[in-house]
Write the structure tokens for this entry.
Amino acid sequence: MTFLRNTQVANLPTNPLRRIFEQAKPGMTNLASGHPNPVYCDHRGLEVATALAAKEQRSWRYGASAGDAELIDALPPWQAPVGGASTLVTSGAQQGIFLACQCLGAPGQTILVPDPVYPAVLSVAVLLGVKVRTYCGESPATALQDLARLMQGHDDICAVYVLPTFSNPTGETWRSEDRDALLELCAQSKVAVIEDDPYRELWFDAKPPERLIERAASLGLTTEVLSLGSLSKIVAPGLRIGWIQGNPDLIAAMTAARQAMDLQPNALAQRVACHYLQSGALERHLNHLRPQYASAHATLTAPLRAAGFSRLKVHGGMFVMPELPSGISVAGLAEHLRSHELLVAPGDAFSIDKSRPSNRLRLCFAALPPADLHRAGETLVAAVEAWR
Amino acid sequence: MTFLRNTQVANLPTNPLRRIFEQAKPGMTNLASGHPNPVYCDHRGLEVATALAAKEQRSWRYGASAGDAELIDALPPWQAPVGGASTLVTSGAQQGIFLACQCLGAPGQTILVPDPVYPAVLSVAVLLGVKVRTYCGESPATALQDLARLMQGHDDICAVYVLPTFSNPTGETWRSEDRDALLELCAQSKVAVIEDDPYRELWFDAKPPERLIERAASLGLTTEVLSLGSLSKIVAPGLRIGWIQGNPDLIAAMTAARQAMDLQPNALAQRVACHYLQSGALERHLNHLRPQYASAHATLTAPLRAAGFSRLKVHGGMFVMPELPSGISVAGLAEHLRSHELLVAPGDAFSIDKSRPSNRLRLCFAALPPADLHRAGETLVAAVEAWR
């Protein structure tokens, strides 16, 4: 391509998940995608909000680059800005990840990301010319050890990317004490934290620990936290409404960058989100959603536990990333399952260090109705039995 | 700002137009903004389209990064892809400008932009670390001379940005022969063309010449044209629906870049746009809009012509950029007009070379009703008379 002169664009990695999604055929049972089932969408509430938005002139006009002030005010209490933080409305959390990495990292600097990782973060780094080094994402304890080692004496490290609550892909949640240790470490090393937190409200039995940005304020730490939220997993991904909160100077810089990139968030979608939130529909919807997700997780994992899968426990979110019973190869199993019309995401799709093959699968329990989840669990178990 | 490590973000210029807009107070007559008057918005048609979109599951779900295929098919015939080109739906034409500059230009390479220019292009270049050199944007003839000189022997030039139809800020339109000369020059120099074309359908009496991307195909030229369109000026800016057309390989690269930046276009807004276009409402709306804009232009410019302003003729679009009668300073006049509650955009807001003060004003005739336009024209004339 003569005219594609930007090598950062030319070198963008293909998201391995997208390659898996391409294998999805009609009729297949899909545990690989992270797309919530439409039955978990409050279509009626959204239709009401949309009808209100459609009647307003401001839904059709230019607006502020930082987003609709009324929408920012309408964000739920668990997303209230803390410690003097500002809020910028983004086109989904993905734009927030991009803006945060862009502002915090000059080209050539390093961002620390977990391995396994949500792969879209890697594309962001390549596009920005920012380097990536990995910390072990298997557990918060190993992550903290790795991060302490990596930050020591490396002043090219500008930020840590972390998904501390019902993580994608692992489903793992950082406890309060792990969060405190992370925040203190980053304060000492003057490394900013990018907190990616779209699954927080999908808890099963108990609310997760405070957001990192809140916890830093509670502890009076100087840690610079940019915290990302989104309506994609709790209202509708097609709305493309996310937000980023942090230090007002950083938010102002990100607002200027986004103005150059796409001027402003979608006015119509912001008004729909604003009416939806103002109506109180979100809390009702979440109250309805949480037990369904808890039950979906239980339905999928019960047969797996009996068959020797481990790491099945999560406390919320949409994903579980079980470790296979010993002696089973992930690649072979995924292939076998595909021939039985069941699509799963092998752990390697989220690995950065490809030298250690993953023995885990990421399974999304939010995409399928209970009967399908039950059948999928049984197919998985049967496949493992056949292998033995 | 310790944590704002990206100097390209830190150095983003403030768009001088935004500083002018901040001076707008309620009750002021605003000829400075390029925001169409809500009376020119087909609210009824949009409400109907929105009601249809709200009932569809796909309005709320994830979709393709390149955009909704049905929307791309529903684009009007004057935006049909030509010569095997592909289409990518963008969040307004601004995202198209960003993606085009990002893909075509590696950091350190040069993009040629007109002076005077639509200032948001300059922010894009700073953010990408791409250099800008200017060509004279006063007329296509001077532009062509300058471009030929600039391209000779400079192999760091990757693209020319041009707004050839009812330009912002000048209102100028490139004739067919000027377009041909530009395309041939760029083919010879292997320089890509970024054709920014959001005003094309707002013609007064006659359709403008073919788009550059179409003309290149008609002439069988090898010129690489990336052509940007938008619904912002003809349907509603709040929808944030634009598109970029060009060589499928370049479009694929831009699609990968946008996927890293914000995943995909807004699903709801795409469905609204799709239903609006499929209903035939756009052609009806444009038939209604064109004579109103022609008449708005005539109303504003008639008194100016009599008072010695020149360069008042445009054939469509939303802007006219008159030259003041000799002896009048733009800055002084703009200041004086502001004290008379009339806001105008001085030509300098669009100038890159600040050493030659502009003696022009950009006036938007799409933002005000006829009575206000008439009064604004008279206020302008009275201000010039008072100055003499």
User: Anything to note?
Assistant: Chain B has a mean pLDDT of 95. The first helix of chain B runs from residue 7 to 10.
